[in-house]
Specification:
Helix 10 packs across helix 11. The chain has a 6-stranded antiparallel barrel. It contains 15 helices and 19 strands. By secondary structure, the chain is α/β, with parallel strands linked by helices. The protein is 36% helix and 21% strand. The structure holds manganese (II) ion. The site of manganese (II) ion has 5 residues, from loops.
Length: 534
């Protein structure tokens, strides 16, 4: 049973090698930011099931139909990755061989299957048992409409996905295997977009085993929810979480030359508004330069040691002059995961979610976030979201400014940070918690808004959202589920995508959304205690 068998998803040829999302020195986004989310050209195999009961002519139609579907899916512009047509699968041997070829193919991130006619599902058992890639069961049909005037028994036999897909679906249920089922007409935009959403989830599943987290401090003292079992996380998600003495990274920062620092400071001054707020211009610039040196030093260390996510802690800064603020914001913008105060789970989740949204048209952003303070005025309820400093600028709406302000915690010089407010619109806030015997992913649909008034004295980037179904129910459910104050947050992923990711990882997921009722939610948590017990 996949759920209990631990992580199965590996790109076989990629084992112990560099991540598939290769950082490229020459890669630049439109904003001039080096992008470490350069996506691998993943492909998804389109496998059509049938058998030889109805003769060669029928099989030639099956192949022609599935080829046409693949061509039109690729031409639709609604899929983020290419679909590759595979010859019709009609025997145990061919199915088993194809599934194992998919396992070995480095570029294959998943399989899309469709039973055009009738494919006896015993033929699939061995192949499916050996498959180690995410699988989508596309339940569709070549023709949209029943051809009332001409339909005969030959047509019925040839176009019987309603029959064949049920036989096929049964064997997954019998095998207790996770798979995604999407039903809909293949030419419909909605069906294509659901396939596209699942492709992003599948890439998140495959790429999860390439996430390596660099942790430069342990967990913040006395804090519970950011802790967790790193061995179990590697078993379940494939994440490697390694600690380094902070001064080893601080040395890399100190080695960054002044010329490089000055060039990056120029870039900052070019790109962001400078809010001196009465500070001396030269002194302000020196404070900015410290963050530029941290950005470059951390980035070089991460590249040299092959890490894609970072964890810092304001209480453990070694010889760093400032808490990495602006520097971490910039690294998040480049595609690194980030978690504060030792929170490696959220850092890895931010990285996975950034991978899942890679290349998305009109993306609105993905960030580390923290629940801070409430507005409880009736009709205007919501949570003000921020962090001490580290909020990703991809979620910014409008101009971004640099401020230099004292920190209320820690003992370093005033750190510079990027300040902005976040975009409006629906989004998803997730929290991965370790319950001791298992991981749980809490997925909350939230509605992001502008605060009623500006907050001129608040020197950090902020978002403001109302959790669904309303603040009271959403917050009560979140707390009952054991959700953290830290979240991995995105405008560009759906709760369904995050839940599908959790399902493929074999962990519990709970949704808090417009349908949540506390009484039912408590029962769900109670029943999950039994369902997910090891
Ligand atoms: Mn925090």
């Amino acid at each position: 049973m996949r759920r209990n068998s631990g992580k199965k998803y590996v790109c076989t040829a990629d084992l112990n090698s560099a991540p598939s999302f290769v950082y490229t020195q020459l890669e630049h986004t439109q904003k001039g930011i080096k992008n470490m989310l350069k996506v691998k050209n993943y492909q998804f195999w389109f496998c059509t099931g049938s058998q030889d009961l109805y003769g060669d002519e029928c099989l030639s139609h099956v192949a022609a139909h599935s080829k046409e579907i693949v061509e039109k899916l690729n031409a639709s512009g609604n899929l983020p990755y290419e679909v590759v047509w595979k010859p019709t699968l009609i025997t145990n041997e061919l199915i088993r061989k194809t599934m194992n070829e998919a396992n070995m193919d480095d570029n294959c991130a998943g399989i899309i299957t469709w039973m055009h006619t009738f494919s006896p599902a015993k033929s699939w058992i061995l192949g499916l048992q050996e498959l180690r890639k995410p699988l989508l069961h596309l339940h569709t049909q070549y023709n949209r409409e029943i051809p009332y005037d001409t339909i005969d028994m030959d047509f019925m036999n040839e176009n019987q996905a309603a029959h064949g897909d049920r036989e096929y679906g049964h064997i997954f249920s019998r095998l207790h295997m996770e798979r995604k089922v999407v039903m809909g007409y293949w030419e419909d935009k909605e069906t294509q977009e659901r396939i596209g959403d699942w492709m992003r989830t599948a890439v998140g599943v495959i790429e999860s085993s390439h996430v390596r987290v660099m942790r430069v401090a342990d967990n913040m003292r006395n804090v519970a929810v950011t802790e967790g079992d790193k061995v179990e996380a590697q078993i379940k998600f494939g994440w490697e979480v390694d600690a380094y003495p902070v001064n080893e990274v601080a040395d890399a920062v100190a080695q960054v030359g002044q010329g490089d620092v000055n060039a990056l400071v120029e870039e900052y001054y070019d790109k962001y508004q400078i809010l001196l707020e009465g500070r001396d211009e030269a002194e302000f610039r020196k404070h900015v330069a410290v963050q530029a040196q941290i950005e470059l030093g951390f980035e070089r260390f991460l590249e040299a040691n092959n890490y894609q996510a970072i964890v810092t802690h304001f209480g453990d800064l070694g010889s760093l002059q400032q808490l990495p603020g602006l520097a971490m914001q910039r690294l998040m913008e480049k595609g690194y995961g980030f978690g504060a105060e030792g929170d490696w789970k959220t850092a890895a989740m931010v990285r996975v979610m950034k991978i899942m949204t890679q290349g998305k048209k009109d993306a609105k952003g993905t960030s580390f976030m923290e629940d801070y303070t409430y507005n409880l005025v009736p009709g205007k309820e919501g949570i003000l979201e921020a962090h001490m400093l580290e909020v990703c600028p991809t979620i910014a709406d409008g101009p971004i400014s640099i401020k230099c302000q004292p920190l209320s915690m820690g003992d370093r010089e005033d750190p510079t940070r990027l300040v902005f407010t976040a975009k409006e619109g629906p989004a998803v806030a997730t929290s991965l918690v370790d319950l001791g015997d298992r991981f749980r992913l809490i997925i909350n649909s939230v509605d992001c808004k502008k605060t009623e008034k500006p907050m001129p004295k608040l020197p950090v980037a902020t978002a403001f959202w109302t959790p669904q179904p309303d603040l009271r129910t959403g917050a009560e459910a979140w707390i009952l589920a054991g959700g953290a104050h830290h979240t991995a947050f995105s405008y560009d992923l759906t709760p369904e995508q995050m839940g599908d990711w959790a399902e493929e990882m074999g962990i519990e997921a709970v949704y808090i959304d417009k349908d949540t009722k506390i009484r039912d939610f408590k029962n769900e948590l109670r029943w999950n205690e039994a369902a997910y017990r090891k």
